[in-house]
C-alpha cells in the first residue's frame, strides 16, 4: 500500500450558512484516479474549493507529500504541486489558446507536450479562448493542468454542459494523466463514467462520506449505487 | 491661430492621454479607478521642487520626485490589496478619492498653499512651421503619450508578464490557483503608474497653473478620456486624451466660449457613453 | 405596534432637539453660533447625499454643485428683485435643485457604479469652473441677501436652520423606513430583484436623485442666508469629494449621522485652527477616516443604529402555527402555458422547443442536470430574457413582450438562485416592499410564523443565507401571486428544516391560491412535493408526467448519472 500523496484529515468544509461536511478523511494515491460522486448541493465543489484554498477550511489538515497546505495561500499550494480544474471551463477568455497554456507551460517544449494529447487544438492555437466550443475549452483547461506538471490534479465536473461524445473523448485523457504518476480526484455527476475510469470511489450523501473504497465494488452493485446516489 | 491653440492644447492632451492609459490599465487589470493618479504626480513634483529648493541638483530632484511618486502609489495599492481585496470596484475607487484628499491636504501642510514655481525641465521650442510654434514640451508629451500607449499595448500582448496581467484581470482567482503572484504583479503596476505620471507632471507643471488643487484635479479630464475608452481600450484612451486637450486648446483661442470649455467635453462623453450602452438593461453583476 | 412607538420616539426626539437648539442659541458665544449655522446647513446637504449614496447605493461626487444650484437660485432671485422673500426663494431653490438632481439621475439609469461617479465628477468640475468665471448673481453689484425679519439675528437664523433640519430629519426618517426607502435599499442591492418584485427601477433611481438634489439646494440656500452671499470656493470639487468621504464614514442617511457630519465638517478644522495647526489637517483626518471606514466596512452611523437596535426589547414570541386555513385563497384563474420556447445565446441554443404547462393549484417540478437550461427558462418566462422564440401564455394573455415589473404585478413571480435579499432592510420592510402591501400586517405576521421565518422587526443582516431564501418565498407569497417560480429554494436547508419546508410547500396552493413551478436538485424534495414533473437536459424536455414515473424513467436516470458504461 503506497503512501498517500494527498491526505485530508478530519476536514470541515464550511460555507457562510454553516458546515456542509465534517470529519472528512480522504487519501489520494499517485497514479490513481479517485471518483468523488454525489448529488448536487451535497458539497463536492465546496470540498475542492477548500482543498485548493478558495475557501478556508473550518477545521482539519490537508497535506501534500511533506507539505502542510492548510495555512498556505492558493498560489503557494499551486507551487507545492496542487492543481484545480474549476467547474465551468475556467479558461481566460481574452487570452488565446497558446497563451492560456503558456501560463503554466512556460516553455515551448512543455507546451508541445501538453498539446500532444489534443491535436484538435493545434489549429485553434491563436484563437481567443472565449470563441472556442465547450469541449475545446475543456481541453485547454486540461492541457494547462498537464503543462503545470502538478502532482495532484482535482477536476470539477468536467462533463458540465458538454455533449456526451465530447466527454467520452476527454475521459481517457484523465486516465492517461493518472498513469503518468499524478493523483487525480475526479468529481462527476455522470456516475457510471466516473466509476469506469477510477480505481477508488468516494460517495458523499447526507452530509457525510457514505462510501469510500474500490470503484469495482460499486460497479458490481448498481442497485447499491443508485440507492446511495438518488436516495 | 486656432492651430496654435490646438497645438498648445496638445501638451495637456498628452498628459491626459498618459493618465487615461494608466486609468484604463488599472481599471482592467486591478479593478480600480485610480482617482489619485494626478495627485500622486503632483506630490512627487512638489517633493522634487523641494529638493531643488534645498540645493539639490536637477537630476537628483527628478529621481527623488519620481521615486516618491512610485512609493506613494505603491502604498495606496498596498492598502487596497490588503484590506479591500474582496471589495467591489466602487469601494476600491472611493479609497483612491480618500488618497487624493490626503495627498492634497498633506501638500498644503508640507509645501504651503501658494502656487509653486516649478523649475522647467523641458524648455524651448522644437520647431516652427510658418507662424505656428511647436514647443519642446508639446513634442515631449505627445511623443511620450504615443510611446507609452504603444509600449503598454506591446507589453500586454507580447510579453509573459503581459499575459499574466491579462489573465489576472480576466479571472483573478483562477490566476492565483495557477500559482501567479497576483499581489506582486498588481503592486508593480501601481508603482510604475506612480513613476510615469510623476515624471509627466514634472514636465508639464512649469507651464500650468501649478497650484496643488489644479494639478491634482487634472485627473478629471483624464477620467473623461478613460470613460470614452469605456475603461477598456488603450487606443481610445490615447485618442480621447489627445482629443480633449486639443479641443480645450482650440476653444481657448475662440472668444465667447468660456462656458463651452467647461461643459463640452462632459456632454460629449456623456452622449457617446449613453449611445454605447443603449442596449444594456440590467446590471451585469446583480 | 412598532410603528406607533416609532412615531412617538421620533416626536420625542424632535421636541428634545428643538429644546437643545433653543438652549444652544441662548448659550453659545456668537462665534460658535455662527459656525453652528454652517454645521447645520452642511448637515442638510449631507443628509441628501446619504439618501442617494448610502441608501440608494449610487456614487455621487457632485453634491456641493447641487448645493451651488440652490445658492444660485436664491442669489439670482435676490439680484433680480423677484417678488417674495428669502423663505419663498429657499423653497424655490429646493425645487429647482431637486429638478436638476433628477436630470443628473437620467444618466444613472444607464451608467452604473464608477462610470456614474466619473460623470458626476465631471459635472462638479464644470459647475465649479462656470461659477468661478461668472460668480454668483449679485456678487459684482454687492447685493446681499437679506434674512427674513423674524430670523434676522444670528440666534434667530440658527433657530430657523434647526427647525428646517428637524423637519428634514423627520421627513427623511419616515421616507427611509417606508416603501420608497426600502425600494432605494433594494435597488442598491439588486436591480433584478427589485424589478422582479414589481417595482420600477428607473423611478426609484430618479426619486433618489431628486430628493437628494432638493436637500442639497436647501442647504445651499441656507448657506447664502447665513453669509448674505455665495462664493464659488465653498462649492468646489474638493468640497464635493470630501463630503462624499464623510458620507461614507458616517452612513449619512441617518439624520443623527448627518448632524454629526455637519459638526465634524466645521469643528474639526476649527479644532486645528485653535491649536495653531494648519486647518488642512482637517482634510487629512477626513481622508484617513474615509480609508479606514472603507477598509473595515463599517460606518459610524451604522454603528450607532446597531447599538440602538440591540437595545430594543424584542416582541414576545407568538405561538407556533401549524395550519393556516384561515387565509382565504384567491380565485385561481392563472395558468402558465408554454409552447415551443427556444432561447439562443449567439450560436448556442440553450432551450430548444420546450413545452410546459402549469395548472391552477398544482405544484409542478422541473429537474435536470446542471447546465440543462432551467434558470434560462425562468428568465425567459419572467421577462428577463426578451429575446426568445415561442408562445408564452399566462392566464390567456401573451406575455412575451411584457416588462419584468409588470409581469410581477400581474401575479407572475419568481425567486432567485443567488441571494437577492438586501441586508439593509428589516423583515417587515422587505416583505411589504416585495408584496406591495397585498396582505394585511397581521396576515403577514402569521405567514412568517407559518414558515418559521423571523419576525417583522428582525434585521435581515442577522439572518443566514438559507433563511433569507425562505424569506424571499414568503415575501412573494404575501403578494398573492397566481404562480410562483422557485429557483432551487431548498439549497442551504438541511435535515429536518428541509423536511418541514417540504410540508409547508405542499400546503401553498390550497392556502395561498398560488401554483408553483419548482426547480430543484433535491430529488427527495421533488418526490415529496410535486404532483408532476418535467425533466430537461441540454435544453430539451426529455420526459414529463407523474413524479414517480419520470423519476423511474431510464433516460432521466441516464441524464443525471450518465448512461451505464
Short description:
The complex is a heterotrimer of chains A (231), B (286) and C (565). Chain A has helices at residues 44-52, 74-80, 97-105, 108-116, 134-147, 164-179, 191-197, 215-220, 222-230, and strands at residues 6-15, 18-28, 33-37, 59-64, 67-68, 82-85, 152-156, 183-187, 200-205, 208-214. By secondary structure, chain A is of the alpha/beta class.
Give a description of the structure.
With 231 residues, chain A is α/β, with parallel strands linked by helices. Chain A has one domain (6-230): Rossmann fold (3-Layer(aba) Sandwich). Chain A has 9 helices and 10 strands. Chain A has helices at residues 44-52, 74-80, 97-105, 108-116, 134-147, 164-179, 191-197, 215-220, 222-230, and strands spanning 6-15, 18-28, 33-37, 59-64, 67-68, 82-85, 152-156, 183-187, 200-205, 208-214. In chain A, α3 (97-105) packs across α4 (108-116), α3 (97-105) packs parallel to α5 (134-147) and α4 packs across α5 (134-147). Chain B has one domain (2-149, 181-274). In chain B, 74% of the residues lie in helices and 3% in strands. Chain B contains 12 helices and 2 strands; from the N terminus they run ααααββαααααααα. The longest helix of chain B is centred in the first third of the chain and has 29 residues, at 2-30. Chain B starts with a helix and ends in a 10-residue tail after the last helix. Chain C has 565 residues and is an alpha/beta fold. Chain C has 2 domains: 2-265, ABC transporter involved in vitamin B12 uptake, BtuC, CATH 1.10.3470; 336-411 and 481-561, Rossmann fold (3-Layer(aba) Sandwich). Chain C is 58% helix and 11% strand. The chains are: A alpha/beta (231), B mainly alpha (286), C alpha/beta (565). Chains in contact: A-B, A-C, B-C.
Amino acid at each position: 500500500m503506497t503512501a498517500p500523496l494527498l491526505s485530508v484529515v478530519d476536514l470541515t468544509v464550511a460555507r457562510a450558512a454553516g458546515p456542509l461536511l465534517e470529519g472528512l478523511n480522504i487519501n489520494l494515491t499517485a497514479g490513481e484516479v479517485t471518483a468523488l460522486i454525489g448529488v448536487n448541493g451535497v458539497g463536492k465543489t465546496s470540498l475542492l474549493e477548500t482543498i485548493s484554498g478558495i475557501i478556508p477550511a473550518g477545521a482539519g489538515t490537508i497535506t501534500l507529500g511533506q507539505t502542510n497546505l492548510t495555512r498556505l495561500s492558493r498560489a503557494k499550494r499551486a507551487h507545492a504541486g496542487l492543481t484545480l480544474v474549476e467547474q465551468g471551463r475556467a479558461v481566460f477568455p481574452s487570452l488565446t489558446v497558446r497563451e492560456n497554456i503558456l501560463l503554466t507551460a512556460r516553455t515551448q517544449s512543455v507546451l508541445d507536450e501538453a498539446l500532444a494529447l489534443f491535436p484538435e487544438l493545434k489549429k485553434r492555437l491563436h484563437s481567443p479562448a472565449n470563441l472556442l466550443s465547450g469541449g475545446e475549452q475543456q481541453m485547454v483547461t486540461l492541457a494547462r493542468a498537464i503543462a503545470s506538471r502538478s502532482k495532484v490534479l482535482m477536476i470539477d465536473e468536467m462533463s458540465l454542459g458538454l455533449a456526451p461524445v465530447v466527454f467520452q473523448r476527454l475521459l481517457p485523457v484523465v486516465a492517461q494523466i493518472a498513469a503518468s504518476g499524478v493523483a487525480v480526484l475526479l468529481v462527476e455527476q455522470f456516475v457510471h463514467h466516473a466509476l469506469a475510469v477510477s480505481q477508488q470511489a468516494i460517495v458523499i450523501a447526507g452530509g457525510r462520506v457514505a462510501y469510500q473504497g474500490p470503484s469495482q465494488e460499486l460497479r458490481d452493485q448498481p442497485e447499491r449505487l443508485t440507492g446511495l446516489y438518488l436516495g | 491661430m486656432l492651430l496654435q491653440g490646438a497645438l498648445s492644447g496638445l501638451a495637456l492632451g498628452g498628459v491626459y492621454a498618459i493618465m487615461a492609459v494608466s486609468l484604463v490599465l488599472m481599471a482592467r487589470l486591478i479593478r480600480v479607478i485610480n482617482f489619485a493618479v494626478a495627485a500622486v504626480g503632483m506630490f512627487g513634483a512638489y517633493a522634487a521642487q523641494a529638493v531643488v529648493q534645498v540645493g539639490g541638483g536637477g537630476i537628483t530632484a527628478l529621481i527623488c520626485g519620481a521615486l516618491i511618486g512610485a512609493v506613494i502609489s505603491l502604498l495606496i495599492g498596498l492598502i487596497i490589496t490588503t484590506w479591500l481585496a474582496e471589495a467591489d470596484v466602487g469601494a476600491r475607487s472611493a479609497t483612491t478619492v480618500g488618497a487624493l484628499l490626503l495627498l492634497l491636504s498633506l501638500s498644503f501642510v508640507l509645501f504651503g498653499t501658494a502656487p509653486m514655481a516649478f523649475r522647467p525641465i523641458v524648455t524651448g521650442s522644437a520647431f516652427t512651421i510658418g507662424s505656428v510654434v511647436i514647443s519642446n514640451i508639446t513634442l515631449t508629451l505627445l511623443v511620450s503619450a504615443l510611446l507609452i500607449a504603444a509600449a503598454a499595448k506591446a507589453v500586454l500582448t507580447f510579453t509573459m508578464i503581459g499575459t499574466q496581467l491579462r489573465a489576472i484581470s480576466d479571472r483573478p482567482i483562477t490566476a492565483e490557483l495557477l500559482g501567479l503572484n497576483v499581489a506582486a504583479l498588481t503592486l508593480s503596476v501601481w508603482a510604475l503608474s506612480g513613476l510615469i505620471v510623476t515624471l509627466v507632471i514634472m514636465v508639464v507643471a512649469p507651464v500650468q497653473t501649478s497650484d496643488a488643487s489644479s494639478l491634482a484635479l487634472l485627473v478629471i479630464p483624464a477620467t473623461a478620456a478613460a470613460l470614452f475608452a469605456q475603461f477598456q481600450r488603450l487606443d481610445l484612451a490615447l485618442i480621447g486624451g489627445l482629443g480633449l486637450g486639443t479641443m480645450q486648446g482650440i476653444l481657448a483661442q475662440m472668444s465667447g466660449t468660456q462656458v463651452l470649455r467647461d461643459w463640452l467635453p462632459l456632454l460629449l462623453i456623456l452622449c457617446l457613453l449613453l449611445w454605447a450602452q443603449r442596449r444594456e438593461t440590467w446590471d451585469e453583476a446583480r | 405596534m412598532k410603528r406607533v412607538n416609532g412615531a412617538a420616539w421620533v416626536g420625542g426626539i424632535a421636541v428634545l432637539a428643538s429644546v437643545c437648539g433653543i438652549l444652544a442659541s441662548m448659550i453659545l458665544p456668537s462665534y460658535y453660533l455662527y459656525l453652528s449655522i454652517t454645521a447645520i446647513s452642511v448637515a442638510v446637504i449631507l443628509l441628501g447625499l446619504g439618501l442617494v449614496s448610502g441608501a440608494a447605493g449610487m456614487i455621487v461626487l457632485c453634491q456641493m454643485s447641487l448645493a451651488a444650484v440652490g445658492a444660485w437660485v436664491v442669489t439670482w432671485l435676490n439680484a433680480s428683485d423677484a417678488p417674495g422673500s428669502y423663505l419663498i426663494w429657499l423653497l424655490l431653490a429646493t425645487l429647482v435643485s431637486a429638478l436638476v438632481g433628477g436630470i443628473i439621475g437620467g444618466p444613472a439609469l444607464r451608467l452604473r457604479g464608477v462610470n456614474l461617479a466619473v460623470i458626476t465628477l465631471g459635472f462638479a468640475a464644470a459647475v465649479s469652473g462656470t461659477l468661478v468665471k461668472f460668480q454668483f448673481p449679485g456678487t459684482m453689484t454687492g447685493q446681499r441677501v437679506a434674512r427674513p425679519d423674524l430670523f434676522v439675528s444670528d440666534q434667530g437664523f440658527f433657530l430657523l436652520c434647526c427647525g428646517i433640519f428637524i423637519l428634514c430629519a423627520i421627513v427623511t426618517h419616515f421616507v427611509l423606513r417606508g416603501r420608497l426607502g426600502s425600494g432605494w435599499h433594494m435597488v442598491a442591492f439588486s436591480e433584478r430583484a427589485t424589478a422582479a418584485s414589481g417595482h420600477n427601477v428607473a423611478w426609484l433611481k430618479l426619486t433618489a436623485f431628486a430628493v437628494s438634489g432638493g436637500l442639497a439646494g436647501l442647504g445651499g440656500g441656507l448657506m447664502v442666508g447665513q453669509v448674505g452671499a455665495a462664493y464659488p470656493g465653498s462649492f468646489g470639487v474638493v468640497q464635493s469629494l470630501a463630503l462624499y468621504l464623510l458620507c461614507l464614514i458616517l452612513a449619512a442617511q441617518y439624520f443623527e449621522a448627518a448632524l454629526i457630519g455637519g459638526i465634524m465638517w466645521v469643528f474639526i478644522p476649527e479644532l486645528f485652527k485653535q491649536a495653531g495647526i494648519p486647518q488642512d489637517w482637517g482634510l487629512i483626518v477626513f481622508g484617513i477616516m474615509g480609508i479606514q471606514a472603507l477598509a473595515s466596512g463599517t460606518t459610524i452611523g451604522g454603528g450607532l443604529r446597531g447599538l440602538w437596535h440591540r437595545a430594543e426589547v424584542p416582541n414576545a414570541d407568538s405561538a407556533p402555527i401549524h395550519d393556516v386555513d384561515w387565509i382565504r385563497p384567491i380565485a385561481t384563474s392563472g395558468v402558465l402555458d408554454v409552447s415551443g420556447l427556444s432561447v439562443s445565446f449567439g450560436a448556442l441554443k440553450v432551450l430548444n422547443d420546450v413545452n410546459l404547462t402549469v395548472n391552477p393549484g398544482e405544484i409542478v417540478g422541473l429537474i435536470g442536470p446542471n447546465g440543462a437550461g432551467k434558470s434560462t427558462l425562468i428568465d425567459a418566462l419572467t421577462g428577463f430574457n426578451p429575446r426568445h422564440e415561442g408562445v408564452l401564455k399566462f392566464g390567456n394573455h401573451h406575455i412575451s413582450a411584457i416588462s419584468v415589473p409588470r409581469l410581477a404585478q400581474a401575479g407572475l413571480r419568481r425567486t432567485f438562485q443567488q441571494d437577492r435579499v438586501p441586508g439593509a432592510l428589516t423583515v417587515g420592510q422587505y416583505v411589504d416592499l416585495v408584496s406591495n402591501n397585498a396582505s394585511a400586517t397581521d396576515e403577514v405576521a402569521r405567514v412568517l410564523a407559518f414558515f418559521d421565518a423571523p419576525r417583522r422587526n428582525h434585521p435581515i443582516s442577522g439572518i443566514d443565507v438559507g433563511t433569507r431564501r425562505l424569506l424571499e418565498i414568503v415575501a412573494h407569497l404575501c403578494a398573492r401571486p397566481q404562480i410562483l417560480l422557485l429557483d432551487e429554494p431548498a439549497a442551504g436547508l438541511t435535515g429536518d428544516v428541509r423536511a418541514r419546508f417540504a410540508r409547508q410547500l405542499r400546503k401553498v396552493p390550497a392556502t395561498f391560491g398560488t401554483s408553483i413551478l419548482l426547480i430543484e436538485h433535491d430529488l427527495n424534495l421533488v418526490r415529496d412535493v410535486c404532483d408532476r414533473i418535467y425533466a430537461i437536459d441540454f435544453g430539451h424536455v426529455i420526459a414529463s408526467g407523474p413524479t414517480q414515473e419520470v423519476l423511474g424513467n431510464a433516460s432521466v436516470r441516464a441524464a443525471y448519472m450518465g448512461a451505464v458504461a
